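Bench notes, afternoon.
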Amino acid sequence: MNIGIDIRILAKGTRTGVENYTVNLLSGLLKKNRAIKYKLFCNGFKKPKLDYPWLNSSNVKIKTLRIPNRIFDLFLRFLKLPKIDRVVGGVDIFLSPHFLLLPVSGRTKTIVVFHDLSFVRFPELFSFSKLIWHKFIYPKNQARKADLIIAVSDSTKNDLINLYGIPQEKIKVIYPAAGEEFKRVEKTDPKLPKVKEKYNLPDSFILYFGTIEPRKNISGLIEAFEKIKKQETKIPLEVQWDGFEGVVKSEKKNFFDFKKLKLVIAGNRGWLYNDVFGKIGNSPYKNDIIVTGFIDEEDRPYLYGLAKIFVYPSFFEGFGFPPLEAMACGIPTAVSNRSSLPEVVGDSAIMFDPQNTDEIALAIKDILEDSNLREALVERGLRRAKLFDWSKTADEFLDVFEKVWKK
């Protein structure tokens, strides 16, 4: 069997959700069955820097076209050329880890991965240029053309069915996982203080890690943080304990010094981020809010390890890697109760309504003040994260390849 894979997304050199997905998938997949020949395709005027050990496997070949992406995209859009299966030397199946499905000749079957349809559900949360880009590539057509769609969650599968009208038998859900580098860091690890100093991190902080864009609801987290600092919360604490019936609630709250508590917002700027920075600038607690910018790959587990709590208040996620990574690192986690996030965290994180900043604030307060809840979240989170495994994901992809090939 010969499998072609589009790895153009790795040529950017950045590592956000889809890039990490692609790297981890290929790392697990390409070494599973050496009898399968993999032909990887990349493009760019400048030769991409691809430094991954799996590229050196005997069953892997990479084909790169040195064509500027703007020109290449025009050929793809209007001429439906080149046929990528022919460019890479012929394949039985061509896999796209994102919905950027490349044109192939009639004899080649296609599998495309859909991570989410957030641009359909929440167009108001995207910049005009992003919406035009999605319109240009027209993901609905990509979904209809593919022989099989891989959805990263049941939430995404349901959106493909309900928003695009894709038959459910054409969609297979295969869960991704956190990278193996995300694990509990010992407090004595000498790298912890180095990472702390590198990003100017405080001693006590709430962590958000992800792209800075409207969909992530960072402004809501800032409002909740302000309420915590002002001690202004208005709903009963019991609302935050749904699903944690097995946890004995502490009779007396542990003392926590909220005056020293900071909020750390880590990650790249996405689009329409000015509102977030305006919110920070106008906050009475702006000196307690730290924006780190990009976090190097090797530092990310330590970033989680330094946090008191991880909070992910996103309005919509196709899967949601950061909560899973935080749980794998043994950090108490709180997430919004929307889209795929309950599917990912199960009973291992406190969930809240992302549009209710009182609920976000109280979830944080409960975790920080109650040691029993905190310990339960850590234990459950570590156990939950182990259910998601890239080796299992790779096995499921191999099974899909076999079925599509023989169809």
